[in-house]
Write a structure and sequence with these properties.
Chain lengths: 267, 415
């Protein structure tokens, strides 16, 4: 099976069971390497069905303070791109089967070499790529390499996207589409944006792909609300915050269970 | 030298960038999706304004009556005698209102927003504080709400400019992330823009960032080069001919591209950009993106593809320069492309050389240059001896040194 097919299978199963998919983000190397692996395994055991593998970058301009601090810490601890791929390889070797989508900014990937990155990513159990500062306009080389290797190319759509852009961007996505819930950067928020349902409906007019919503979702109730109107629920900052400090793993496990329950309760 | 009509250039430089904002392999739009519609709108508005007579008339009115343009060229008689070679002329952007070329672009973009866009708020980044002050000034004059992001390291080394911005009614927000300098200020300005894009224009201060910024900033700064052509050809105030070489410092590259661009078609004019050599190239503590192949490689930073100082893993390197305005890890994409075409050349001056440049120009000509501009002056020490007495150099003096007195006093000590 290719990465695209593995991702499709997850959404197909969820659709058959009439529920959405819980998709946590993990800043690789944070709080440290060992904890990263434990967090992913723990979340996998508590109902996460797809992971965003956050490869740190020095200049994460779409991220709020929580993920900025986490990825900066990971970098200062020496986390490299190669290291992140080594971690996903270890998780696969240990038997994890959930799809992994690498999420990073373009420069680390470009510096690694587009062709080489795609080849190594596939060999390390990565199934798709999310590059928030790389719109389809600039992605020709990466997209061609991903198509050849069966990796999913997941682009983002935002509430500011016009109808024409929704059609254009959706046409370049495979696996699912990442909907940015708010006009803004990552970070947990106390309320979901009021126009989220309308935004999702706008995108749905132009595509049959599963829609996963991220940015700002922080607790089980919000996850449940999103799961009612979208196929995937992405949670990043809230989990990163939970992982920070003494007792982090237990907090992540508790929040992960709450989020997974929220997502599954929805329909 | 024959001056007009212009000889056939090898390339129609004015036709670039292409429609997608690329200068060959450089440039483009590498931003989060949230911003893509705003960039499309900005491009449309800016292209229309370029040929909008009313807009252009209002901009040139303000440049004349508010900024004080045209800025003169000054014949540097004593400096010329000091080197004993080519005649040296100085384009005096230090005499523009707020003390640097930055106002040309700040006013242009602020006016564009005010007249042509349904936005009410401006965010900007600043390194040296000159772009922040210029933006705060334009915002005050046009009555626009303004927020400027500035790294806390830069706030400390450019304290008077922080106060100036606040006096002008702008909110200055200190940036504590990363190296706490220009790059980090740009990150936070972009994050603000992503969050408030429906009401806010990002007034980027150099020929950097996603398309259409590099082209738009260049066009607003090209007033420098257009004036300079006219002034150089004037036999009374100028030498009555075009220069053989033009020298400008290069941070993001806006003052340099502003003076270079109108001269591109005159292929006999050498165009020389001077980057920040910091503490020297070997140790890696500099911002000379073109001079250090170990660190300066093709990459993407803050919306554009260009030369970027980075480590092997694609993480952006920390740069160093005594001048906050040149202390940046990337360089405008058009510079990278012109360099590939062999049309422009780049060299660097160290911190130490720049400080010597400050002393030299102050004592020889009675002009205290900004530390950024002093890098261009410093290069004269190398360039002038290679040129003949019958030749002419034009230096772009991008700004005045008042803002740097604190740093200069600390470095040069008792005189
Ligand atoms: C006086 C002066 N010159 C030059 C620069 C460098 O910018 P650029 O390369 O865009 O002209 C700055 C930037 O702050 C500046 O203040």
């Amino acid at each position: 099976m290719t990465g695209v097919e593995r991702i499709q299978a997850v959404f197909a199963r969820a659709r058959a069971e009439q529920r959405a998919v819980f998709m946590p983000y993990q800043a690789m190397g944070y709080p440290d390497r060992a904890a990263t692996l434990e967090i992913i395994r723990t979340l996998g055991d508590t109902g996460a069905e797809l992971f965003e593998i956050g490869i740190p970058h020095s200049d994460p301009l779409a991220d709020g303070p929580t993920i900025q601090t986490a990825t900066y810490t990971a970098l200062t601890q020496g986390t490299t791109v190669a290291d992140c791929l080594a971690m996903t390889r270890e998780l696969r070797a240990a038997g994890m089967t959930q799809p992994f989508c690498a999420m990073t900014y373009y420069n680390p990937l470009f510096a690694y070499g587009v062709q080489r990155f795609v080849a190594d990513a596939v060999a390390s159990g990565i199934d798709g790529l999310i590059v928030p500062d790389l719109p389809p306009e600039e992605s020709e080389e990466l997209e061609a390499a991903c198509r050849a290797a069966g990796l999913a190319t997941i682009y983002l759509l935002a509430p500011t996207s016009t109808e024409a852009r929704i059609r254009f961007v959706a046409g370049h996505c495979t696996g699912f589409i990442y909907l940015v819930s708010v006009t803004g950067i990552t970070g947990a928020r106390t309320e979901l944006p009021p126009d989220l349902a309308a935004f999702i409906a706008r995108v749905r007019k132009h595509t049959d792909l599963p829609l996963a919503v991220g940015f700002g979702i922080g607790d089980g109730a919000q996850a449940a609300a999103v799961a009612q109107i979208a196929e995937g629920v992405i949670v990043g900052s809230a989990l990163v915050k939970a992982a920070t400090g003494e007792g982090g793993l237990a907090r992540v496990a508790a929040l992960g269970a709450e989020l997974a329950a929220g997502v599954k309760r929805a329909r | 030298m024959a001056v007009s009509p212009a000889p056939q250039p090898k390339l129609n430089y004015a036709a670039w960038p292409d429609e997608a904002g690329h200068f060959g392999p450089y440039g483009g739009k590498f931003v989060p999706e949230t911003l893509m519609p705003a960039l499309d709108e900005l491009e449309e508005v800016y292209l229309k304004a370029k040929s909008d007579k009313e807009f252009q008339a209002e901009l040139s009115f303000l440049l004349r009556t508010f900024v004080g343009r045209p800025t003169p060229i000054t014949y540097a008689r004593r400096l010329t005698e000091h080197f004993g070679g080519p005649r040296i002329y100085i384009k005096r952007e230090d005499l523009a209102h707020t003390g640097a070329h930055k106002i040309n672009n700040a006013l242009g973009q602020a006016l564009l927003m005010k007249r042509k866009m349904a936005k009410t708020r401006i965010v900007a980044e600043t390194g040296a504080g000159q772009h922040g002050v210029a933006t705060a000034t334009a915002a005050a004059m046009l009555g626009i709400e303004c927020v400027v992001y500035m790294g806390t390291v830069d706030m400390a080394r450019q304290e008077p400019n922080v106060y100036r911005m606040r006096l002008l009614g702008t909110e200055v927000r200190g940036v504590e992330s990363g190296s706490k300098t220009l790059k980090d200020a740009i990150n936070d300005a972009i994050r603000d823009w992503v969050t408030n894009v429906r009401t806010t224009h990002y007034l980027l201060g150099s020929a950097l960032g996603p398309h259409p910024y590099p082209a738009m900033v260049r066009d607003f700064q090209s007033v420098i080069g257009r004036e300079a052509i006219r002034q150089m050809l004037d036999p009374v105030d100028g030498p009555g001919r075009l220069p053989d070489a033009i020298v400008a410092c290069v941070g993001g590259g806006s003052n340099a591209i502003g003076i270079f661009h109108p001269f591109l078609e005159y292929e006999s004019v050498r165009l020389i950009g001077v980057e920040a050599g910091g503490r020297g190239i070997e140790g890696g503590e500099h911002a000379a993106r073109f001079a250090d192949p170990k660190l300066g490689r093709l990459g993407v930073l803050q919306g554009t593809k260009s030369y970027v100082m980075q480590d092997a893993d694609g993480q952006i390197a920390l740069t160093h320069s005594i001048s906050a305005g040149l202390d940046y890890a990337s360089v405008g994409p058009e510079h990278a492309w012109l360099r590939d075409q062999g049309r422009t050349e780049y060299t660097y001056a160290t911190d130490e050389a720049a400080l010597e440049g400050v002393k030299l120009l102050s004592r020889m000509e009675g002009i205290i240059p900004a530390l950024e501009s002093a890098h261009a002056i410093a290069h004269l020490v190398e360039l002038a001896p290679q040129m003949g007495k019958d030749e002419v150099i034009l230096v772009n003096l991008s700004g005045r040194g008042d803002k740097d007195l604190g740093t200069i006093m600390k470095e040069l000590g008792n005189l």
